[in-house]
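As described in the Methods, two query proteins were run sequentially through the folding procedure within a single session, without resetting any intermediate state between them. The first query and its resulting structure tokens are shown here.
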Amino acid sequence: MKVLSWNCRGLGSTCKEEAMTDLVSLHQPDILLIQETKMEEDAFLQVTSKFWEKRGKAAISSRGASGGIGTLWDEKKFEAVDIKYSSCWILTLLRQKDTNTLVRIFNIYAPNSYAEKKVCWRLLREEKSNLQGNVILAGDLNVTLSQEEKRGGTLVRDPIRETVDEIILDWDLMDVKPSSGKYTWNNKRIGPGHIAARLDRFLVQDTFLLLGLNLSSKILPFGGSNHKPVLLEMANDKNLGPIPFRFNPLWARQPKFLKIVVNTWSLPVTESPSYIWEEKLRRLKRALKSWAKSIPSPTLKKSLAVDALEKHQTSMEEKIVAQKDIDIEAILQSNLHTACRLESD
């Protein structure tokens, strides 16, 4: 199961819609959690049809020019059992169809002001009596849980941290540390004024470990917002064997494709008709796999663009950020978007 969370800082423009399309295409999540849509519920649900074809949707409207939350899921894999809304979170109870497992996901957008944060976490805390395991708290929690999770600015302890720490202990939650990346948000400033923090995360109940699942998260290289997306993966620890051959339809557009198919298929094979058919397919598979390594593909370009952006954004976490770094980041983000558009075309 793959759960992707992103504070997109508004989804009401074509460039943001395309950014969300790129993100979904890159990571193929089963569940998508979006914060700060800055849209009315109906408008958001209508816009999601451009990047989410898996149908399951729930949303709450923004309050003026801020807020707005959307939870999307793959209806082929999950059935929505119950949905509950508050001003700053959506609680979705999903049943995973292949395992019959119930999963409870809070998609949270915590406000900036302390008074509103307090209300947000109090309302969430009151839900404990209604929960029976397999809980995930995710989204923009707008709080750091240690000094190491913030760089720059004042290091004053957020008073709401104590409340969040108590919920983590009381609900048996684990903070799934990202395997790559340190900070999920930054203020886009340069020099000494640059501030970065880990405000977005997944807090996962330890009951998932009893299901034999391995949990991992990653802060993703991306653009379009001052928040980075975060990906949670929950997988069974199983050896699935060799990766099966998969035909790429883009190969058919290459000038040499048809020649390789004809030449390989025309090679003589003797034995029974069924053996001839299977052997020709095996030979063609080997020929196409070998040939595919030598051609430039949109998928390869996309992977290279992701790697380049990730490398640069990681380096920015370790040094004083200059205007040149911001400019290079913008170019690499544009390159990734172009690579995603190329593949979709």
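Immediately afterward, the second query was submitted; its sequence and tokens are:
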Amino acid sequence: MEDSGKKGGVGTGAGAHGAALSAQGEDPTGRWRGAGLLLIALLALARAAALARPPPDPRTLGRPIALDIEALQGEDFRLLPGVGPVLAARLEAARLEAGGRLRERDLSHVPGVGPSLRAQWALLRSR
């Protein structure tokens, strides 16, 4: 009876417990290994995406820009204050509808462009 837990019998020690877990396909030491590797891969991907963007030109930071609404096209409209992706798409559609050049008089026909936005944009032009 003394050696029932040692050879051939069912033991209650760590060796028997580890063998039972391995037989079930569970590895207590590497349970989180896959999640950790996935996290590392995601962090590396995020860092690579951040490095892929070109840095802003320090000579142009903080300087006012000349604003000519007639010269803007596509994603350029997002440079205007108060313009997100939806309004930029509307402005681009209005520009194309107007023959490729969006004029001041065309702005009143664009949904979402009201007097307050036009006033903000007028302040940018006067700089």
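The first helix runs from residue 14 to 24. We note this only descriptively and draw no conclusion about the first query from it.
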